[in-house]
Amino acid sequence: MTIPEDFKTRLKIAKSKIKKQLDNDNEKRGSFMGSAFKLGTELVAAVAVGTIIGFILDTLFDTKPWLIIIFFFLGAAAGMLNVIRAANRMQKED
Amino acid sequence: MASNPMQQFTVKRIGPEINIAGVDLSFTNASLFMVISATVIILFLFLGSKEKKIIPNKLQLIAEMSYTFVAKMISDTAGSKARPYFPFIFSLFMFVLFCNMVGMLPYSFTVTSHIIVTLIMALFIFIAVTIIGFIKHGFKYLSIFVPSGVPAVLLPLITIIEIISYLSRPVSLSVRLFANMMAGHTMLKVFGGFVVSLGILGGWLPLSFSVALTGLEILVAFLQAYVFAILTCIYLNDALNLHH
Asked: Please, which of A10, A74, B118, B134 could form a disulfide with B177 given CB 3.0 to 4.6 Å?
């Protein structure tokens, strides 16, 4: 009669383990939205900064509209770089 | 009842107008809520650390938990070299967190939903981190703009991209906090307005949305303070441990 008792405790331990894992997953799900938003701003901010730099340089050297176009694309590239870096950081955290 | 959902963000002057050298330095509701948040933090930490019991009461437990939380965050992301910056990051985290949380109270004002507040904090961090980097490494700090293992043809292009990426840090840091807080509070107000306009018959659905959104907003308030602090740690790490 000791075997079912043993099995019961083992079942209890296994169940509590699964429950803990589920709770963990639920906590993480909330922060996924934060991560998604983080990546979005990362991309947009770099494009905005690149375009602003292009605009300033354009008015400085009087070369409208060439530098603003070039720096827009450089900013987009910088944004993608930012996103890749942020994603790498997130993977390292997990 | 304010029908305009953006009305909650207006900055109003409280008390007399103070004008020093053409700069308006009047005390506003934004300044009032910053003072309230700072006072609440000081009170909370003071009362939490007053009785140093071995078995802590609830307040002491929360105060100690916030300490270990930030300390662990710093040592995990920036290593032991960032220890001296603990007071700065702790105050930053607590200030953003309490500004967000005080903003969740009805009839209060959310300081962090204004881009000028978050941008000033982000610019301060950005400039401070840059200065720390130059003090620690001298002109070698500029090497973070030049990644290793890049062909010489692409080097000027990559350097410009790296500089733009570096300059975009304060923008993304401030816009993220500001946009999250502003969007959340606008949404709460919009659903609140629906409850009033639909009345007792149809107002229950938007009311339940409002309740759910309030819970979500509290989560966002904490999460954004955490993200703000952890990104500061990451930038500090880049400045302290140069290895790109």
From this structure: B118
Distance CA B208, CA B214 (A): 10
- Chain B hits for A42, Cβ within 8 Å: 168, 172
8 A C-beta contact, residue B210 and residue A80: no
C-alpha span between B230 and B44 (Å, rounded): 22
Could you tell me if B97 and B222 are in contact, meaning their C-beta atoms sit under 8 angstroms apart? yes
Mutate to test the interface with A, among B126, B159, B168, B232 (most CBs of A within 10 A): B168
Q: What pLDDT sits at residue A3?
A: 62
Q: What is the pTM of this model?
A: 0.82
| Contact (CB<8Å) A37/B176 | yes
Report whether pLDDT(B1) > 60: no
Q: CB-hemisphere CA count at 13 Å for B180?
A: 30
H-run or E-run covering B23:
strand B23-24
Distance, in Å, from the CA atom of B85 to the CA atom of B74, rounded to the nearest integer, reads: 9
Å from B79 to nearest chain A CA?
14
A75 shares contact with chain B (CB less than 8 Å): yes
- pLDDT computed for residue A23 by the predictor: 65
